[in-house]
Design a protein that fits this description.
Layout lengths: L8 H11 L5 E3 L5 E6 L6 E5 L2 E6 L10 H11 L7 E5 L5 H9 L4 E6 L2 H10 L8 E5 L2 H7 L8 E6 L14 H8 L2 E13 L4 H13 L2 E7 H4 L5 E8 L7 H8 L4 E4 L2 H7 L24
Parallel strand pairs: 5-6, 5-8, 6-7, 8-9
Antiparallel strand pairs: 1-2, 2-3, 3-4, 9-11, 10-11, 10-12
């Protein structure tokens, strides 16, 4: 889920609800409405849930990563060793990253875990996956779904992406040391975990997430737009973590890859970012903060 400052987004969706009866629509299990709407700001379409943009998909070019945080994830994926990947994705959205990996790394094997079957059906029908794509979608809770993956995947996953939102927030049970231990057990020795975190002023949640992830995977870098990383506005922070040191050459390449203005916190800067934040554990974790809806309709 992305939090771009879009002045007209909510008004545009409202107009479409009134005038365009052909928009693909599905009702989710909690009553929210998911829609596939044309993107006003780029080619392609957006998956919108109750006025909140969840994903962007460009069927004509799956390498087009429009949302900033997704482009940052793509930059990390591009730096992984060449060749096909074994990847696990928690949260489906529009299947943007699985499509990107399928296009840029042919032969990759991917598993997606998504709670909402209606969302999966909507995306599959309105924005079909390439026929040859080796992307399997499993329905269920992300944490429970990890335990149900084939035993042969334990210790064999090159990339695990966690981008799960219920409404506008990441559920607390997907933010803890125990959860990240379960996720890390799937990773190959040099495998990478990518986590999308959204936070605002003060970055209390993001700092705690960084502390939590580093408790499990000691090599961590945080990527974000400069003002977001400074806690000056609500936005997305991408956390890239591994059990092994991230290659030194990654850092300047990630900065150069953008989107700009880009910032990567690592090493001593990451220590300062985390400061005295303590890891979250089952029993004391909280959902991620809810953004102000004025981000979508100013």
């Amino acid at each position: 889920m992305s939090w771009p400052p879009r002045a007209t987004y909510a008004r545009r969706v409202g107009r479409q609800r009134q005038t365009d009866r052909e928009i693909p629509t599905a009702r989710l299990s909690d009553g929210r409405i998911a829609r596939i709407v044309p993107s006003e700001f780029a080619t392609g379409y957006e998956v919108d849930v109750d006025g909140t943009p969840q994903s962007h998909v460009d069927p004509s070019d799956p390498t087009h990563l429009h949302f900033e945080y997704v482009a940052r994830m793509g930059a990390v994926i591009d730096l992984l060793p060449e060749g096909p990947l074994t990847a696990v994705h928690l949260g489906a959205g529009g299947l943007t990253i699985p499509r990107y990996i399928d296009a840029t790394r042919p032969g990759s094997r991917q598993q997606v875990i998504e709670l909402e079957p209606a969302l999966v059906d909507l995306v599959r029908e309105a924005l079909p996956l390439p026929r040859a794509a080796a992307i399997r979608i499993r329905i269920g809770d992300a944490r429970e779904g990890l335990a149900r993956l084939p035993q042969g995947m334990r210790g064999a996953v090159d990339l695990l992406v966690s981008d799960v939102y219920s409404g506008a927030q990441t559920p607390a049970h997907l933010t803890t040391v125990e959860f990240y231990r379960e996720a890390a057990a799937l990773l190959a020795p040099g495998g990478v975990l990518l986590v999308n975190t959204a936070d605002g002023a003060g970055l209390a949640f993001a700092r705690r997430q960084a502390a939590t992830i580093r408790e499990v995977l000691p090599e961590l870098a945080v990527l974000a737009e400069v003002q977001v990383l400074k806690g000056r506005r609500f936005g997305n922070l991408v956390m890239a973590a591994s059990a092994r040191p991230l290659p030194v050459e990654w850092l300047p390449r990630l900065m150069a890859a953008g989107p700009h203005p880009a910032k990567v916190a690592h090493g001593e800067e990451l220590d300062r970012f985390i400061a005295d934040a303590r890891p979250a554990v089952d029993g004391d974790a909280t959902d991620s903060p809810r953004p102000s809806w004025s981000l979508f309709d100013r």
